[in-house]
């Protein structure tokens, strides 16, 4: 009887790839987790219980066939494992690195619920795809047949790139327009290298270029080209701009120098530290934490990226100020732990009410307590009278989340419908808007969300466009 390759969670404990020591990893922007060796990946994959109702799969926005590619990995069939993984996920090596698995697939693992520790799904996913790149299994797209229809995609972030990949596989002609000089959106300039090294993103972009996708960079819609020009050029247009407008802080002194937006700070760091670009604001110290007392305001993943970046830039001290407690923060608990290991101090249940100094010298803060749940179900923070104090700071980073830009005004397209939150109105699964041939996906529809949801939207939208163009062709016959 053949030896059972799976169900080993009773004998084998959960094991993550080794993590570099905090003192070591603070010195650079390299990824902090090592790669699984083949034997370790097979061993951890073999812990999967192959359950009849795989909650890991149902709680993955892409519904990745996780049990199947874990089984293939456990039995050494890595090329097949990559094929299964790639079938539902355009960028598995990226999701394996940056998805909050603790809230999605791993957080819903059946053996985790039984007390045996979740399967390390994200690390195995990363290992499978990194091996596929190393072995040359990842090849440019070669459509069976080219089609004349073309699609313009505004935004080269994960949603736009996922849609581009799917549309090229169907043989459509695809052009991606983006305001930045490199494709990838937040994958390139928003997420630090210690979570996602930039060559991982750039090789995917290069693969799409080799596959026939045209990229028009440094191209801002409404400035370098009009929205109507793009619409008239293509049979369909996808709006995949993401949300880049930062939520602001109010209160006395909020206009002081030294109070900066998270997106500006992270972009400058990624350009300087990961691409070697000359960034005047970084060189001058305006967007550089070196030698400074840094306070980051916010409790999401962007805030965690900022505090950990500041540590690597050589800040004198780094504190994160958040108005709720740790249990109620929106960011990844894993990232919070990494930040604490690296020396970040968290000021829980603390909110800013103002700032001192023309060039910021401190954050006027007040302590909070949690009261009754609000409409979202989370406990509302309430002010504790007489708890005010001033936290010294000479660099304050606002990481309070992002909102959509006013696209109808920026693009001169008043008929583009938006919601009361400023997001583009679009069908949930297809991305169709009220404008004929115009679709919208990702954060510009959902509001600030996860990369994996943008990928899902891009893939779903590509399917809808293919169906709509086919229906249009049949109607024209």
From TrEMBL:
All copies of domain FAD/NAD(P)-binding, residue ranges: 151-458
Domain of life: Bacteria
Top-level enzyme category: oxidoreductase
EC number: 1.4.1.13
Dihydroprymidine dehydrogenase domain mapped to chain residues: 25-136
Keyword Transmembrane: no
Sorted UniProt keywords: 4Fe-4S, Iron, Iron-sulfur, Metal-binding, Oxidoreductase
Positions in coiled-coil regions: none
GO molecular-function term, one example from the UniProt record: glutamate synthase (NADPH) activity
Protein name, as recorded: Glutamate synthase [NADPH] small chain
């Amino acid at each position: 009887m053949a030896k059972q390759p799976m169900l080993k969670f009773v004998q084998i404990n959960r094991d993550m790839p080794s993590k570099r020591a905090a003192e070591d990893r603070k010195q650079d922007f390299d990824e902090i987790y090592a790669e699984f060796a083949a034997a370790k990946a097979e061993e951890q994959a073999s812990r999967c219980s192959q359950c009849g109702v795989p909650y890991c799969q149902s709680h993955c926005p892409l519904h990745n066939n996780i049990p199947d590619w874990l089984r293939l990995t456990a039995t050494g069939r890595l090329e097949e494992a990559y094929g299964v993984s790639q079938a539902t996920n355009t960028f598995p090596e990226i999701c394996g690195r940056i998805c909050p698995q603790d809230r999605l697939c791993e957080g819903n693992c059946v053996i985790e619920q039984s007390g045996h520790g979740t399967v390390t799904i994200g690390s195995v996913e990363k290992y499978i795809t990194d091996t596929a790149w190393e072995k040359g299994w990842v090849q440019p797209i070669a459509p069976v047949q080219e089609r004349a229809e073309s699609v313009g995609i505004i935004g080269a972030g994960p949603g736009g790139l996922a849609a581009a990949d799917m549309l090229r596989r169907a043989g459509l002609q695809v052009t991606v327009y983006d305001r930045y000089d490199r494709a990838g959106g937040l994958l390139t300039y928003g997420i630090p290298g210690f979570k996602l090294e930039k060559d991982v993103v750039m090789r995917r972009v290069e693969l799409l270029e080799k596959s026939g996708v045209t990229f028009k960079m440094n191209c801002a819609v409404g400035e370098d080209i009009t929205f109507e020009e793009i619409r008239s050029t293509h049979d369909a247009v996808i709006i995949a701009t993401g949300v880049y407008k930062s939520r602001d802080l109010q209160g006395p002194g909020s206009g002081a120098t030294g109070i900066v937006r998270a997106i500006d700070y992270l972009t400058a760091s990624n350009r300087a530290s990961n691409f070697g670009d000359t960034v005047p604001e970084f060189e001058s110290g305006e967007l550089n934490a070196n030698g400074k007392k840094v306070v980051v305001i916010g409790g999401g993943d962007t805030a965690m990226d900022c505090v950990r970046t500041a540590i690597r830039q050589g800040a004198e001290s780094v504190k994160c100020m958040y108005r709720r407690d740790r249990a109620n923060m929106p960011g990844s608990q894993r990232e919070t732990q990494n930040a604490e290991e690296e020396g970040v101090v968290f000021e829980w249940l603390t909110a800013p009410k103002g700032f001192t100094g023309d060039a910021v010298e401190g954050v006027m803060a007040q302590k909070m307590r949690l009261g009754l749940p609000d409409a979202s179900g989370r406990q509302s923070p309430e002010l504790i009278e007489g708890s005010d104090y001033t936290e010294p700071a000479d660099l304050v980073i606002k990481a309070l989340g992002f909102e959509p830009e006013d696209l109808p005004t920026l693009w001169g397209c008043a008929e583009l419908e938006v919601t009361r939150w400023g997001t583009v109105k679009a069908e949930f699964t297809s991305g169709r808007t009220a404008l004929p041939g115009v679709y919208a996906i990702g954060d510009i529809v959902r509001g600030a969300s996860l990369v994996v949801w943008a990928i899902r939207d891009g893939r779903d939208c590509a399917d809808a466009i293919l169906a709509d163009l086919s229906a249009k062709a049949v109607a024209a016959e």
